[in-house]
Each structure stands twice: as C-alpha cells, then as structure tokens.
Amino acid sequence: MKLKAEFRDRDEMIIYLREVFAEAAARSPEVAETRGGRCAAEAALERIRPERYASSRNYLKGAVTRLAAYLRHGVLSLEEVRLEALRRGGPKAEKLVTELAWRDYWQRVYRRIGAGIWKDRESYKTGWRTSDYATELPTEVIEGQTGLACMDAFAAELRRTGYLHNHSRMWMAAWIVHFLRVRWQAGAAWFLEHLLDGDPASNNLSWQWVASTFSTKPYYFNRDNLEQFTDGLYCRQCRHYRSGCPFEGTYEDLQARLFPRMPEAR
Amino acid sequence: MSKVMVWVHGDSLRPGSAALAKHPEARRVFVFDDRVIEGYRLSLKRIVFIYESLLEIEGIEIRRGDVAAELAEAARESGVTRIVTTESVAPGFARISERLRRDYRLELEVLTEEPFAGIGKAESERMDLKRFSRFWQPIKSRALNLNRSLW
C-alpha cells in the first residue's frame, strides 16, 4: 500500500499519520517535539560539546548530545559523529567517543546473536533465579501512578517525549528489575514502544547490563545518587521523601534488602 | 531510468547512505513493516519521527505492508530486477533479504557504511565481545585517533 509523501507542513503530516496508523495512535497518541530528519540531526550534531559532555553527562541537566534517535535510524552515522566529536574535542572527546563505542559494541553483539537479544545472556547474579521475577510490568508503572515522584515523572516523560536521559533509564531499569523484581524483558519492550531511539541492541543489552544477565553484578542506586544527579527535583515534591522511599539507604542496606541471597551479601 | 531500485530501511535513513549515494537517480522505496509496528507495539511518535526523516530523502516513495512483497511489487512496476540497499545487523533485515532473493528472484546488493573506527566485519568476527572492556581495550587508541601525533 502506497502512502503519501508530500505535505504542506508537519501538522498535516501528523493528521494523516493518525489516520493511516490508527492502531499505533490508539495505543499512544502522543507526538514528540523532537524532529526527525537530516536537518534536525545536523543541527543537533552542531550543538555537541564533547568536553562539557564528559564532565556533566550524568546530570539530568548535563550537556548530553540528544543524538541517539538519529543514530538509531541511521540519519547520522556513528562514524561521522565519532569524527566530529574528535574534531571538536580532540583528546577531550574521549568520554563521548567511548559512549559511541558502546553503541557500536551493542550492534556487533546483535549481529552475532540476532533474536537471542531477547534471552538472558547469562544468569542473574542477584541470588534470584529467572523464575523469581515477574513477567509483566505493573500497570501503575506504565501509567506513572506509583506515587514515586521520580519514576512517575520518568514514565510520563517517556510517553510524552519518546526520550529519557540515560541516567533516568538506568534508574528506571534498576527499579523495575531489582526493586519490583520484574524481568528485564518486560521493561525493555515497554521502552521500545516509546523511545525514539529504541533499538533492540542498545536497549535490551543495556537492560541486561542493569539486570546482571550481561554483566558481573547488578546495577542499582540509592536516593542520594538520584537526588544528586537530578538536583533534587523529584525528591522535593515526593510524598515519600520523609518516609516510604524505597531507594533510601546506603548501598549496603539496599544490597541486603534487594539481594539477600546474593553470596556476597551474606 | 536507472536499472536498479534502492531499498531504504529504518536503520539507514541518511539521504547520503551508501546505497543512495551510489545510485542518486534510482527510485527509492521505504516500507513500514506491519510486522514490526505491531510486534513492537510502536507508538505513533516513533512512526512520526521515521516519517519526518523519510521526507527529507528526495523522491522517496513510502509504502506500508509486507516489506518483501511491497518491494517486489515496486520493482515489478519499474521493470527492475536488482535492488540495492545499505546493510543492517537486524535479523529482520536478513529475513527480508532472503525472501527478496528466494521468493521474488530479485538480485540484492548490500552496501556497507564506513564502519566505526575502521573496524570492518572480518575484524569484528574475530573480536572478543564477552564484555565491553574486552572489545574496547584493543581498539581504544584507534577510535580516539591517539596515534595520529606519530604521523
């Protein structure tokens, strides 16, 4: 079936796509502000600041590049971004180039394992068996109705913008897999529905890295960490700040609570 | 009229992709894969992003359905028997490529993009990919152009 390829403007295109892809629109009707296309991609590439990226990338307000969606769909090639990063940053582009290398690495793993990308690469190192993890995401997680200001805000942002900062993705993945004890596959599939940069390789293998099925230990975080890198934005407005925050505690506390069967935790 | 048709897919939406650069005059076709859209339950915003990217590829023809069947139909319309595309590592790409060749008897040429830090497929096959660090250590200086000062 042939589709229309000429429109007066973006709005006309969106109206048309809502009709033609009615099932997708019924599932989630939001349209992101992020623009597709080579022009927008080049403008984003023009804005990268490799040196500031290196020092601030873990902060939600840090100088991240927002190139992922363009890289994922090949609107920009990884190699052209690597060369541009080095041209601008020289040796100070090391951190950014390393992150590009992660994407390249995931792609090479994907080439090798194909659909195996959906299977646990290794067993969990958490002390739990795969069968100890739930297979479905709780509805309130998807709908952003858990009462945790941070996670509910991330869920809403994911749905509205098709983007999450890398650190938010890691927190959310760690929360889903380790705190809620849900299989990483459920979270990975949910992210792929929404992320404009959703790519089975980077996405699933990063979830596996957090889960510990593609790393030597689970990734998890505590409130101090989230509070620091978000500048306290969510904690300040969270009704669980004084009591009931599941992320409160030292890493030792959390490890004992989350992974009581993990050999090192005993 | 060019004797080839370019298959543009969602892993290679650059107007200057390997296939489009080699055949700037050829008919170029993209097909939204119903199987992918439903299989991944893609949200509308993802489709909008891809669509918007496609519209910057001059002369793009956009279709929807079964990718191999749609491409074969477009090729038949143009009287073309050879399709050129840019490589993707996705298993779906291999599946569709195989169908184009086997079921539709089309010749398929797959071009590769300039690889990251010059690490081609042959080298990649020999690499230890168990962990990122094992992949990264041997290529790090190359990727960062650290040996450039020696020249």
Can you give a write-up of this model?
- The complex is a heterodimer of chains A (266) and B (151).
- Chain A is mainly α.
- Chain A has two domains: 10-115, Serine Threonine Protein Phosphatase 5, Tetratricopeptide repeat (Alpha Horseshoe), CATH 1.25.40.80; 130-265, DNA Cyclobutane Dipyrimidine Photolyase, subunit A, domain 3 (Orthogonal Bundle).
- Chain A is built from 14 helices and one strand.
- Chain A is globular.
- The model of chain A has no long low-confidence stretch (mean pLDDT 97).
- Chain B is of the alpha/beta class and 151 residues long.
- Chain B has a five-stranded parallel β-sheet with strand order 3-2-1-4-5.
- In chain B, strand 4 (82-86), helix 5 (91-102) and strand 5 form a beta-alpha-beta unit.
- The longest helix of chain B is centred in the middle third of the chain and has 12 residues, at 67-78.
The top-level CATH class of the largest domain in chain A is Mainly Alpha
Domain unit count of chain A = 2
CATH topology of the largest domain in chain A: DNA Cyclobutane Dipyrimidine Photolyase, subunit A, domain 3
- CATH classification class of the largest domain in chain B: Alpha Beta
Number of helices of chain A: 14
Order of helices and strands of chain B: EHEHHEHEHEHH
Mean pLDDT of chain B: 95
Q: Spell the H/E element sequence of chain A.
A: EHHHHHHHHHHHHHH
Radius of gyration of chain B from CA coordinates: 18 Å
Helix run count of chain B = 7
CATH superfamily of the largest domain in chain B: HUPs
- The CATH topology of the largest domain in chain B, please? Rossmann fold
Q: Any low-confidence stretches of chain A, pLDDT <50, length ≥5?
A: none
